[in-house]
Specification:
Blueprint: E1 17-21, H1 27-36, E2 40-45, H2 49-58, H3 67-73, E3 76-79, H4 86-95, E4 104-107, H5 118-122, E5 126-132, H6 141-145, E6 150-154, H7 160-169, E7 173-176, H8 182-209, H9 215-233, H10 241-244, H11 247-260, H12 265-281, H13 287-299, H14 305-308
Parallel strand pairs: 1-2, 1-3, 3-4, 4-5, 6-7
Antiparallel strand pairs: 5-6
Helix pairs in contact: 11-13, 12-13
Length: 309
């Protein structure tokens, strides 16, 4: 289902009232997307000024109330709070009697499956875990980005179709994740997306230090091609001095990083070791070249072994 199709739903009668607990970047976006599908946002909770501004931008005219009031007003409640906050929130809502039988309770945590909602399940709620594999800005552009976005879906078997239907209505693609595999699933996404941001930010800082006026313009085509190649070809897309076994070049890199950006050395060495292992396993790095390269990575070039740790 694409964003272009969603406006067709706007003429339908509203089917579910929607509430958001936690007006971060994710909740208002999902509620706005559900609104395009014919549902009706009726309440949102948010504590900080930023949350309230975001709610006003993404869900205009929707009242900001307490979490308990959100649950009183909504048939479908989105719990979009930080992972570490979620278990306590669910327990608190269940203990106060805010959860209603038959209420759809949806959390968007990647780490947790449906079992974290067990306190609400005992109160009669219908638990769903719908995690969008997307980075959010907290602006209307996020609704468009949901088109074709994969969602990690975990729910009781009897609610599987309902969970997948909600994802499709938001323009997403449901991907079923077993309860016990949720932490591994989330770790994979964090490794691929969150760490990528750190690597790109570090690369831009280093390019500025090297005198590049527009590091974003320089990196854009390169990173776009690298990402495309990696998604298409996996390890076969590995290139660069580590994959080639250019130990002297890698040693020069580490020397310059120690001089200009010592905070990046540990990350560079760790990623270079991982790249070398994958290049060796894939037959890209010749064993006879790997010895010198791994020696450089073990000692951190001309520094002592202790410096590289």
């Amino acid at each position: 289902m694409t964003t272009a199709q969603q406006p067709d739903h706007k003429d339908r009668p509203a089917r579910l009232t929607v509430g958001v607990v936690g007006a971060g970047r994710v909740g208002p976006t999902l509620a706005a997307s559900l609104q395009l599908a014919g549902h009706r946002p009726v309440a949102v909770s948010g504590v900080s000024d930023a949350s309230r501004r975001r709610a006003a931008l993404m869900l205009p005219d929707v009242p900001v109330v307490t979490p308990e009031d959100v649950l009183q007003r909504a048939d479908l409640v989105l719990l979009t709070v930080p992972d570490d906050t979620l278990p306590g929130l669910v327990e608190g809502l269940a203990e106060t009697g805010a959860v209603r039988p038959g209420q759809l309770l949806v959390h968007t945590s990647g780490r947790y499956g449906a079992k974290v909602l067990n306190p609400a399940l005992r109160a009669g709620a219908l638990p769903l875990a719908l995690h969008p594999a997307m980075t959010f800005t907290g602006t209307p552009v996020d609704v468009q980005r949901l088109a074709g976005c994969s969602f990690g879906v975990t729910a009781p078997e009897e609610l599987r179709l309902a969970a997948e239907a909600l994802v499709i209505e938001m323009g997403g693609e449901p991907e079923w994740i077993d309860e016990e595999k949720r932490p591994l699933y989330h770790a994979a996404l964090a490794l691929g997306a969150n760490h990528l941001v750190t690597l790109v930010a570090q690369a831009m800082e280093l390019l500025r230090s090297a005198g590049v006026a527009a590091p974003d313009r320089m990196l854009g085509p390169l990173l776009g091609a690298a990402l495309d190649n990696a998604l298409r070809s996996g390890d076969a897309a590995l290139t660069g001095p580590v994959a080639r076994g250019d130990a002297g070049t890698v040693a020069a890199h580490v020397t310059e990083l120690r001089r200009h950006a010592p905070q990046t050395v540990a990350g560079y060495l760790a990623m270079a070791r991982a790249t070398a292992d994958r290049a060796l396993a894939h037959g890209l790095l010749k064993p006879e070249l790997a010895e010198d390269l791994l020696g450089v990575l073990a000692t951190g070039t001309n520094g002592s072994e202790g410096d590289a740790r």
